[in-house]
Structures
1.
Amino acid sequence: MWQAEHVRAALQQYYPACDVSILGMTTRGDQILDRSLSKVGGKGLFVKELEVAMAEGRADLAVHSLKDVPMELPEGFALAAVMEREDPRDALVSARFASLDEMPPGTVIGTSSLRREAALRSRYPHLVVQPLRGNLDTRLAKLDRGDYGAIILAAAGLKRLGLADRIRALLDPATSLPAAGQGALGIEIRSDRPELAAWLAPLNHVATALAVGAERAVSRRLGGSCQVPLAAHAHWDGSRLQLDAFVATPDGSRSVHAQRAAEVGSGADAQALGNAVADVLLAQGADALLAVALQNDGAAARPSGH
């Protein structure tokens, strides 16, 4: 809802006479809280109901956290704008510990992300990683009542909701590489609405859109979803875009990493950079790691005895 309000305020700045109403909805991703996203369908759980509302004409646009948007949109839909990115980093939230390094063996850390789990298990094998679902208030409440010694959340969500004071430490991307699109908002519309795309054009932040485009290209090429520990993060160094990515097994025991930089001035350039990084990962055996992740996920989802 904060994101929708943010987009409404931005539109009203550009078009003071317009009337923008918000159609609040609850998605399957919001409703299923007793299982990890990788077990119940992944990223699409947060967007399907919104796409149905647009297809039926009940809504003109949908606002998403871009890291929750599938890499391939259904036919008939398009991303019309990517807004300027908030902090893309992961954040450590804890009342007891100021850093991951000071946590004693057996400390329980909560996260909803296989990507974060793999990074934690690789660098901090003495810590216990447990699943954490629910909205932000629910997750913080579980921490505050002592279910976890610390939790890892996206810094962007905490900052947007005025909860930056809960952040004990911002995790360096070298420790916890962000997910593709993390910290960015995407606006989705029906692809047969060119007039709406033009109306939304002022909200598109080109530098963010290109960076996110490169990140999503890596994930798209590798079939990225919530079922696999995959990270991709791009940042600008002048006119050059540096893209880092990794793929790991869920337990963090094996991983491959790639980094490339290039002059990027168009969406095609961003796509090419993402594909180049994906090619490096594949040459290092990323496909085998992805297969392990998907096999483990399928085994966990099968009924016992099979």
2.
Amino acid sequence: MSEMQKRVRKAIVTDAGFASRYLPITKTVPKGMLPLGNRPIMQFMVEECAQAGIEEIIIVATPEGKPVYEDYFNNGVNRIRKQLAAQGKEDRYEPVQHVLDFPKIVVITQDESLPYGNGSPVVSAAKFVEGEEAFVVIYSDDVVFGEQGDVKTMVDLYEENPEVSGVIMSQEVSAEVVDKYGIIKFKKDSDTDLDYIVEKPDKGTEPSRLASYGRYLLTPEVLSHLTNANTGKDNELWTVDAITKVAKTGTVLVGKTKGEWMTTGDPENYFKAHLKFVIDNEKYGSNVEEWIKEIKGE
């Protein structure tokens, strides 16, 4: 498909919250800059977008986080490159060049006049997706490990179903944890079309075992529902509420991840995600089990 024919060209990635569960580190370092191996969480989001052919990524950050992201994705640290070249260690610069070669990245801050809520970063970036047929929204809390990221899965589904009003991703969870997530309810006689999302249902009442998380492909229609007049629970502006309203009059497809979704939204789950990444991907990952035994004195 040529550049002119691309139907999904832009993505919004959000990291504009206080991240209070991570204080004090997040008063200085954005949560999305916490590492998985030697890459920050945010880089996984950008790589997922690049895999799907996204041309422009809008990162919505805090005022403190904006300069950090701008530096990370644009600073070529030439002094380090020259020093490595002088030492014959040019290969160590390759990961930096990889970052510099990403698609266009724009970093903005959230509009302070908007209410609190995960829909507000999306509204803050609305002018950057103006005129687009559809765009991707990613919450940087949610990491997807695997050969194919969710952004490509959503883009492929949208290309195959051009009449839909959106695509959201899901992953099956166990019956023991359905009360911790937003669970998908399908429309009658369908196993693909979203009816609505049930937030943290009581165990045994869940309409499915598919949890929704921060991977959405949306059409501009959703923005008409993300307004100050449409705040929901706790007077916050929720993206899911807007998606539900779109699903009432149109079709929002539910895709199933081809990878493995893990949340990094709190320190415990972040540690689990980091540990999994290290075990599965780092050269020293095979040593982790032995290290645990050493630490426990076994």
